[in-house]
Amino acid sequence: MKVVIVNDYARINGGAAKVALRSAIALAERGIEVEVFAGIGPALPDLEKRGIKVTTIRETPYNRDPRKLAGAIKGIWDAEAARRFKEVLKGCDPKDTIVHFHTFRDALSASVAYAADRMGFVTVYTAHEYTLGCPYGGFFDYRRNQICHLKGLSGACLASHCNTGAYFKKLWFYASQFVYAKIARIPRRLKHVIYLSQLSRKALAGYVPASTRSSFVSNPFDPMAGQPAPLTPDSPFLFVGSLASHKDPVTAAKAAKALGAKITFIGSGPVEEEVRAANPEAEITGWLDRNAIAERMAHGRALLFPSIWYEAQPLTTMEAAASGLSIIAADASAAVEQIEQLGVGEVFRRGDVDDLIAKMKPYLDDAYAHERGMAAYKAFCRLDLSEERHVNRLLEIYEAELALAGRTSHPQPPPSVSE
Questions:
Q1: Helix, strand, coil proportions of the chain in percent (round to 5)?
Q2: What is the phi-psi region of residue 252: left when phi exceeds 0, alpha when psi lies from -120 to 50, beta otherwise?
Q3: Cα 54 to Cα 43: distance, rounded to the nearest angstrom
Q4: How confident is the model over 384-417, as pLDDT tens digits?
Q5: pLDDT in tens, 48-57
């Protein structure tokens, strides 16, 4: 078997790239032949160290191309990326090759998925976000700061100025999505879609054909270093992530201020001044490295996750649980499913400061917060969310898809159990 991993970036710049590239490395360590095709370099050095061949197209995404028109055209249909990808696939045997797509929006376009299907390859896609249905990939109205319930590519979608920039940028995203879904018909060309959560599948239900095979496969989670530490009166609530409106750090800041509770924001972003105005006593550290975040989590009171958009599978929440932090999350994202999976944590109404206050108040008691944090830690340890299990699930799906395509002698239906 050979696996071709396709992702916009050949370096880790976010959750999707991390999962894509680390799975490539883990597969190679299993003795699987792996190749990575990406839009943006330079490549993660660990790929070359594992003997993984990497092909990249350019160094900047479409929206940073100084030739604005050329960048816009490539973003809708990148003929060069398709040509280069075909060259890669010509060196692969369709009878024994899986093409696994992660993201191809910022630097590759729909042209690569179209090329793979036309050349007869089995294609698997991980739905890290909502590009299969929404022009912006998030089902979120950034002007109104709320979840968007409009049908993607509908007339109402076209008329809605949902982005914070100029309306012509919305028109570009709409045109790109129209080519993606209606002309290239990408959702129909994918043989297997991997969902990260029930929320993800529900949100995309109207955009992926019912006949498309699918599975739930959790992303792997790395436990943070160290063990949970005892709490002190100075132990703060934590917020980890971008200080952006759809993450709603302002609600967290207001709730902590009203309670007189210490709170630390790890991250930065466009609403940082709003956070400071809502809670002048709050600590804002900016972005920290992994070890520094682990240290903060080890001494935290609870993780606040007030995000108000459809996050398909937050990473920070499970990392917090692995560090002995209970999670207090808004009801919008798949963090709710993670709390149910752990059996510990709190859910509050998105954007509701008073409800968040009520959920935070018991955690002001050191003993209670420590007890809940240890329960989250033990629950995480009982769950198998390791990279090993993640790769095992991928291999099950790959083998089953090749079998169903008639390329092995013992076809088996692909697994579809929930993680």
A1: 40, 15, 40
A2: alpha
A3: 7
A4: 899 999 999 999 999 999 999 986 544 444 444 4
A5: 999 999 999 9
